[in-house]
Amino acid sequence: MNNAYDSSFYSTNHYILIMTDAYGVFPAISSTDPTDAEVAARLALLAKDHASVITSDWSAKSASVLGSLATRS
Prior knowledge:
The chain is mainly α. Helices cover 30% and strands 5% of the residues. A two-stranded parallel sheet has the order 1-2. Helix 2 (36-48) links the parallel strand 1 and strand 2 (53-54). The two termini are 15 Å apart.
């Protein structure tokens, strides 16, 4: 998931943590057109791992999906 990096440091110290290429985190999902459920699950997974912002090339998704929010752990 995070290659054994302890990303809690960023949350604890109030840093903004940007995780890029969100589609490639195991298990990988489509880099261009994942299902809405896959996007939601990936967002939840990375927020749990302290991500502030995630990025990917999901341009085919609707604005409501791309603007989704999750609580960062």
